[in-house]
Every structure is written in C-alpha cells, then in structure tokens.
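Subgroup meeting minutes
Present: P.N., E.W., G.H.
Scribe: E.W.

1. P.N. recapped why we're keeping a running log of single-chain structure predictions: easier to compare across weeks, and new members can see raw inputs and outputs side by side.
2. G.H. added today's entry (189 aa).
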Amino acid sequence: MGLIAIGLLLFNCQNQPAAGEKQAVETDQTTTAVAQPDTTKKSIPRETTADLGGVSFTIAYHSPGVRNRVIWGGLVPMGEVWVTGAHMATAMTVSADFYINNQRLSAGKYALFTIPGEEEWTVIVNKNWEQHLADEYSAADDVMRFTVKPMETQHTERLTYSITPTSEKKANLAISWEKVQITFPIRVD
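Output recorded in log:
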C-alpha cells in the first residue's frame, strides 16, 4: 500500500514544473477550436501567432474561462479599462512597422487593453506592455485608441485572440469571450 502511494505521488509530481521553471504555454496558430470540455479553473497562458507578408505577429495573454460566471458587467466592469486577459497585460509583438485599424505603428511590443461597453468598445494600444492587470495602466502611455462595435457570437468558454488572414498582407484580429466578439483590421505594407 505504501509503495502504491509513493508511486502515485511521483507520477503526479512529474507533470508539475520544478521551482523556477515556467509552465508550458498553449499556442494557437490563428484560430483553433477546443473540442474537449474545459475544466481548468485558472487562466491559461496562451499565444497567438501569424505571419503577414513576412511580418511576424505574436499576442501573448492569459485566457480566463467563463465557468458559469457573469462576465460583462460582472467579472469585467463595463466602461472601465480592462487588461483584456488575466494577470499581466496582453502583449502584442510585431517584427516590422504595421497598421491597426488603418493607423500606422512602429515595430515593437505593445500592451492591448479595452474598455468594454454595451454599444461600442474602445481598443487601446499602450506602450507599457509589462504591467500587472490594469493596476499600472496610464492613459499617458497610450499609443492609440479607437472604437469598435461588439458582435454577438457563439459561446467561447475561454478568452481567445485570433488572427485571420484576409490576404497576404491583411488580417482581422478578433477577441472573443463568452458570447461577445470584437474584430479590427491589421495589415503590413
């Protein structure tokens, strides 16, 4: 009996990261649907990548789950700056100059925030990508803001960023969670 307990303990521990090791990051190449039921209670680190005309886009974020909670106007207040993820600010890294919503930005790393609303959302690109939630957010660090209309979509259990190419150098970046999705164009020259 004691040997069985030790064996089970060793088996369970081998899948846990050792002190100082990072947990594996789940990676999406554009959009990937998960067919299995999600029972994880924590926010999962995720990364979405795309290549547009030789320019690399990477979005690193933590993906919280709905888990039968009220999201809009509950967990995520309406009309307030939201990290649009969990834990750390969502970071977008782009390898060359690019456009978001037809506004030009230099290559680099940025934070993405939103201000959810019933009729429209404000999307914020901020130069301080290394910050905890929106605790350290400052509008003085905003590089751009623009508004988009939220759309109703099928239930998405986990917050998901997706980049869907529409041509070699253009794509739509979508943020989906619960039954809401916002989408805006990105492109390169």
